[in-house]
Amino acid sequence: MFSPLIKELIESLRCLPGVGPKSAQKMALYLLEREHKGADRLAGALREALDKVGRCSGCRTLTEETECSICADPERDATRLCIVETPADVLAIESAGTFDGRYFVLLGHLSPIDGIGPEELGLDHLDNVVLHNQVEEAIIATNSTVEGEATCHYIAEQLKSKNINVSRIAHGVPMGGELEYVDGNTLALALEGRKTL
Amino acid sequence: MFSPLIKELIESLRCLPGVGPKSAQKMALYLLEREHKGADRLAGALREALDKVGRCSGCRTLTEETECSICADPERDATRLCIVETPADVLAIESAGTFDGRYFVLLGHLSPIDGIGPEELGLDHLDNVVLHNQVEEAIIATNSTVEGEATCHYIAEQLKSKNINVSRIAHGVPMGGELEYVDGNTLALALEGRKTL
Ligand SMILES: [Zn+2]
Ligand SMILES: [Zn+2]
User: Could you give the CA distance from residue B169 to residue A68 in angstroms, rounded to a whole number?
Assistant: First the structure.
């Protein structure tokens, strides 16, 4: 029904997370019918980001600059390091507003099946950062999934052998969360990690 | 938090319908973290579609070809014309499988506030098509919205003055509903029950 270029645009929109065939079609027609300006801007932004965005030389987060804004900030305490899986996790922890150290962004987790090992996560670079910044404390904030836990365990062993104080972000009941809707595994961890009042 | 190029990518993704700030961020990071190939394909598809997709010389639907596949099909009855708002509406009516004529795609509806008048909808071109193809019957299938009804009325007057048998798609289509979301059976009934205007 649609001409080849429109079909190709619909197909290529499906690489976006959460976009199925119906919304890809809707998006393609919307752009071609009445959003040429936005589509042009998007094509340019994609091309430029693909060409120029790489890794921060400090924390390995995504950036087109040599150093990201956090690594470049002299006010941040370089001896404290929070290790996360993704740039979105950095944003989440920053929004809490209580951490004044730096980050190390793995961009993933250990996943041998997908060929993601210590090298792909930049763990050799993590060693350099730890040495160079004389890191004293590392907080591992990988996701609470099987892969996240395995990655945490691997990194913890690597860092503990260097006499660094390594901790894991606490697991428990979310603030404002109702107990009855929290899953059993989380509750078990929350009970285990209880604090004396 | 994010570097300028990543911010720009997030912003530019928001031109897509249904994409808010949170999903734009998710999309941008997803593409940069692990979908370079898809992002590259999308950038290319956008650029190419913007450069080359124009209007069908027959029905004015979106296509990069001179004539769309329906206008180029000699089996279709050129004396019967179905007038719709968008390319998605053509797809919807084709899925009903009962209409063997051709289409005329307005790419919109009359909307004086947005500066969309008869000229923007190609109604002068509609006159040419009607003359050139000796159209005998026109079925107006604009949306069942206030604007769609007003557009229908305007076009009906224009065509009736040319002694064409003009009908409106039957209101099996839910009032206020958008044509592209209506199922094929309902559309088949709506076509069958069309009323002379
Ligand atoms: Zn950095
Ligand atoms: Zn056509």
Answer: 59
- B41 Cα distance to chain centroid: 25
Helix B87-96 to helix B184-192 angle (10° resolution) is: 80
Shortest distance between the Cα of A115 and any Cα of chain B, in A, equals 13
Please give the Cα distance from B28 to B136 (Å, whole number): 51
Alpha-carbon distance of B140 to B191, in angstroms, equals: 10
B107 and B11 belong to one structural domain: no
The ipTM (two decimal places) reads 0.85
In a domain, B142, yes or no: yes
DSSP code, position B80: E
Q: Is A183 part of a structural domain of the chain?
A: no
Of B8, B68, B88, the CB nearest to A29: B88
Instruction: Check CB contact under 8 Å for B15 and A86.
Output: no
Contact A45, B2 (CB under 8 A): no
Q: Give the integer Cα–Cα distance in Å for A87 and A79.
A: 20
Residues A92 and A37 in one domain: no
* Interface contact A16-B29, CB threshold 8 A: no
| B67 shares its domain with B162 | yes
- In this structure, what CATH number is given to the domain that contains residue A112? 3.40.1360.10
Condensed to tens digits (0 to 9), the pLDDT of residues B123-144 reads: 999 999 999 999 999 999 998 8
Residue B153 confidence class, pLDDT cut points 50, 70, 90: very high
CA of A56 relative to ligand 1 center, distance in Å: 5
In a domain, A13, yes or no: yes
Q: Is the pTM of this model over 0.90?
A: no
Whether B69 and B161 share a structural domain: yes
Size of interface A-B (CB pairs under 8 A): 183
B143 and B69 inside one domain: yes
In a domain, A190, yes or no: no
* B40 shares its domain with B74: no
Q: What is the pLDDT of residues B48-106, one digit of tens each?
A: 999 999 999 999 999 999 999 999 999 999 999 999 999 999 998 998 888 999 999 99
Range of the domain at A148: 62-168
